[in-house]
Each structure stands twice: as structure tokens, then as C-alpha cells.
Write a structure and sequence with these properties.
23 strands, seven-stranded mixed β-sheet, binds MU-OXO-diiron, alpha/beta
Length: 396
């Protein structure tokens, strides 16, 4: 059955829902699946904007052919080369061998390396346009949002922006495809998790893109994942602006790693003190249970971060090491940090936390606490001091 949807006259959504893949980029959990949005413009010329992940090829081609009714595809616009959007390129070229692939100078080496495609290429630069007849495509470069070749495509006649991954979301499109047709409350975490997990490292490029595109009138934002924005455009732009400036709310994320419960006990005590001191947004995560995806998402939300780990073979616990490496890699900015550890003999967590603090350059608000096994009165006092210092900083 043809599931393509006309979103404006002559412009179609050709997206595919993926409810089978468990992890995105072979790393980030997909509890609510993900949609790969491809778009088709049928005018005097026919153009596709981005494709889908290759495992959805059969249904994708079926929808495409159902809309085109024997017409050929003239252009494929490649806003982004990551394979969840470029996966259909080779097959499309088999079906439409005369199709011209439109990209920029950074697109084509990737196209050659990934798919061996080196012919029928049309290179565009910032501000270039391509007429399809009644629709004009205008191209804007948004490098490192979140790959170097990334660009967006704008149709001025419709005030419509094909934004690539920007303004995207995890989660399948269950029924509706527009932001006013889907349950945005249900997708809330998937929208912010998509930003923090996938785009979050690139706050400055995101800011540059927002400034560059800020002058364009917009009636519709068509991202490559998640709902099409037409009613809540100002809201999603405002959220991207806030996230990419690393602006946070008052709250504290406590992430701990604990083998036998002693480090968890310290986390509980710190959380309790924070609660008594008036902090309501407290999120306590066990790194052995909760994927970094969710912890990082909460860290993007809240200013305070308190990390605790037991020692493990003279170092830090492996799941905490994973979280620290991820945060260091992302270069998340603008947080207040405190940390604590627990040891049975020589320790190992505290030196790693210290190195992390120096690398990520968050403001350390308190001396670290380090207990030996079960908490003693003096350990509880150290935990209280951490909570007090964090609250003082957040309320300042
Ligand atoms: Fe959805 Fe960067 O690929």
C-alpha cells in the first residue's frame, strides 16, 4: 500500500518507520523506534530530498513509484550523507540511472567512498539555487550539524525548509506525521534525546546555523527524523537555541556506579540533602542500569552534576568510565560538578574524576567525598557538604 503523504501541493513525505532497530548508530537506544523521512517534489522536474536507511528499500521504492506513475527522478538532493539517509542512493541510481546527484564539495568524496558513485554529480555552494519549475531549491551550508558535508534545502515559494537532522527526533510517526497530529508529550524525551545524543556535541555549529537560517520565513520544517514542524516551529527553534547555548534549568543529576550498594547509599544521602534544601528536579541514575543516552540527556537539562563511583581494579568502575568518556567526547559545557568515591583499599575513582573535571572544565563546587565501605557519620557530613555547596551554587 502507498503510504506517501502529500504535505504541500506537489511535495510528498516518503518516510519509513523503523520499529525493529534497537540501537541507533549501533549505540543509542530506540525504545520508541525512529522514522527516516525522505521527501519528493513533483514539478516540471522531479527531485528527492534525502533517502532512507537501506533496510526499508522495498516499501520506499513502492511508495516512490506509486506517486511518480512512471515519471523519472531528475535530481537527488543529498543534504546529509550519513547512511540512515543515504542508504537508498545506490538502489535509486539503478532505477533512475540518469538521475543527477546534488551535493556540495564535501558530499561527493563521501559518496564515492561509501557507494562508489562518481558520475552525474551537480555541485552546489552556499546560496546556489536550482529550479524545478514552480519550485526553487535554495541551498545553505550548515557544516558540522552534525557532519562536515551537511547542508539544508529551502523552497522559498512554500517557505519550506528541508533541515536534515536538525530539529529531528527519535520515535516513529505513529499515524500522524505533523507536529499537530502526533502526541508531542509522548515524544518529548525522544526529541530532546535526539538533540543531546546526536547533535549535542555541535552546539556552536548549531548556533551558527540558527543565525544563518534565522531570516528565512518558515511555514514548515521537514527534518529527516521525527514529526514535520508546521504549528510549533517557533517552539522547536527556541528549544534548539537553548540547547545549543548549553542553557540549563535548576536541577541536579546524580549518576553513580556501585557494586555492593555503598556508593549508591552515598548517592541516596546526597539526593536526600538536595531535596531537603529545596531542589525538586533531582535525577538519580545507576550507570550499570541506565544507558548513557538518558543520563546525558538529563545532564543537558540540569545545571548540577554529581558523580560517584566505587573503585574497580585500582581505577573507576567501567560503566562510569563509559559515561565520562562520552561526556568528554561531547565536550558538554556549562555545568557545576561535584564527585564522590568509595573504596575498600587503595581507591581509584577520585583521581579519574579529578582528571575528568580538568578535561571538561566544569566548575567543581565542593571537595570530593570518599568513604571506605559503609557510610560513617563523617562520610554523611561530607555528602551533606557536597549537597550544600551544589545548592548554594545553583541558587546563587
Ligand atoms: Fe540521521 Fe546524521 O543521520
Amino acid at each position: 500500500m502507498n503510504t506517501a503523504i502529500e504535505i504541500k501541493k506537489g511535495i510528498y513525505w516518503l518516510g519509513m518507520n523503523d520499529r525493529r532497530t534497537h540501537i541507533f548508530e549501533n549505540y543509542w537506544p530506540l525504545p520508541k523506534g525512529v522514522a527516516y523521512n525522505s521527501y519528493l517534489i513533483v514539478d516540471e522536474k522531479v527531485a528527492i530530498v534525502d533517502t532512507v536507511e537501506r533496510s526499508h528499500m522495498d516499501n520506499y521504492l513502492e511508495n516512490l513509484e506509486a506517486v511518480l506513475q512512471g515519471r523519472k527522478v531528475d535530481y537527488l538532493i543529498v543534504n546529509h550523507m550519513e547512511p540512515d539517509h543515504s542508504g537508498a542512493i545506490k538502489t535509486l541510481l539503478c532505477h533512475y540511472p540518469e538521475m543527477t546527484v546534488v551535493g556540495n564539495a564535501k558530499t561527493f568524496p563521501m559518496l564515492a567512498n561509501y557507494y562508489g558513485v562518481t558520475r552525474n554529480l551537480h555541485e552546489v555552494k552556499e546560496g546556489d539555487t536550482l529550479s524545478l519549475g514552480t519550485h526553487t531549491l535554495a541551498f545553505y551550508m550548515v557544516p558540522m550539524l552534525h557532519w562536515p558535508e551537511t547542508m539544508v534545502t529551502y523552497i522559498p515559494e512554500e517557505q519550506l525548509l528541508f533541515s536534515g537532522d536538525a530539529f529531528g527526533a527519535f520515535g516513529t510517526l505513529d499515524g500522524g506525521i505533523f507536529d499537530d497530529q502526533v502526541d508531542l508529550d509522548y515524544l518529548e524525551e525522544e526529541i530532546s534525546r535526539y538533540y543531546s545524543n546526536i547533535v549535542g556535541k555541535y552546539g556552536m555549529p548549531a548556533q551558527a546555523a540558527l543565525k544563518k537560517l534565522g531570516g528565512l520565513p518558515l511555514s514548515m520544517i521537514c527534518a529527516t527524523h521525527g514529526p514535520i514542524w508546521r504549528t510549533h516551529i517557533a517552539d522547536i527553534i527556541a528549544r534548539y537555541d537553548k540547547w545549543s547555548k548549553y542553557e540549563t534549568d535548576e536541577g541536579v543529576v546524580i549518576a553513580f556506579s556501585s557494586m555492593y550498594g555503598h556508593t549508591e547509599q552515598m548517592a541516596e544521602v546526597i539526593g536526600r540533602y538536595l531535596g531537603e534544601m529545596g531542589i525538586k528536579k533531582i535525577r538519580i541514575h545507576d550507570t550499570s542500569k541506565t544507558h548513557p543516552s538518558y543520563i546525558i540527556n538529563d545532564i543537558f537539562r540540569y545545571k548540577g552534576v554529581i558523580l560517584g563511583s566505587c573503585a574497580y581494579n585500582g581505577g573507576i568502575f567501567p560503566t562510569m568510565e563509559t559515561l565520562l568518556c562520552e561526556l568528554e567526547n561531547m565536550g558538554v559545557k556549562n555545568h557545576c560538578l561535584a564527585y564522590f568515591g568509595n573504596k575498600t583499599w587503595g581507591g581509584g575513582a577520585i583521581p579519574r574524576f579529578k582528571a575528568f573535571a580538568e578535561k571538561i572544565k566544569w566548575e567543581v563546587v565542593a571537595e570530593p567525598a570518599e568513604a571506605c565501605g559503609a557510610m560513617k557519620t563523617t562520610d554523611a557530613e561530607q555528602c551533606k557538604a557536597i549537597a550544600e555547596a551544589m545548592v548554594a551554587k545553583l541558587k546563587a
